[in-house]
Amino acid sequence: xxxxxTGRSLASYLGELKPLMGAGAPEVEATHPVEASEVRxxxxxxxxxxxxxxxxDGTLRxxxxxxPMHMFRRGLDEADPLEAMTDAGFDGLRRSFRPGLPAxxxxxxxxxxxxxxxxxxxxxxxxxxxxxxxxxxxxxxxxGRSGGSLFLLIADAYATADxxxxxxxxxxxxxx
Length: 176
Description:
Elements: H1 3-6, H2 10-17, E1 28-29, H3 36-45, E2 111-120, E3 130-144, E4 147-160, E5 165-175
Antiparallel strand pairs: 1-3, 2-5, 3-4, 4-5
């Protein structure tokens, strides 16, 4: 369903969503520290040069810059999100973009990936714990040839358990 089919303007949705700007989720810690075996598989899957992350003696010491983003998976005690498919009212769209962020109620039938922006600060070391803080950075509207779209920018700041910044990502989600 599009905004036009609901009889509401995109501006009215924007007015409801604007107060969410700056809303953040509680900081969460990855379920386990950075493990060499996972980093090794990540390096192989991304076809990166493993020597870049090793000491002079060849011991793996660091993970690639984007590795912390992939450490946040569903915990063993969390429900499988595919179980929602058995609910007759489930339309296949998640309204919660990060655990702990307020869900966004939208009537749009399409969600598009508008891309990511990255800022890297330092590599994470094997054995370190990683934390993530998420927030809604911006919400805005644009009109195009095929109608209007809402843009949602979600910021994720990754840091060590001691608070040292590792990287920041900003994801753009386009709702139509």
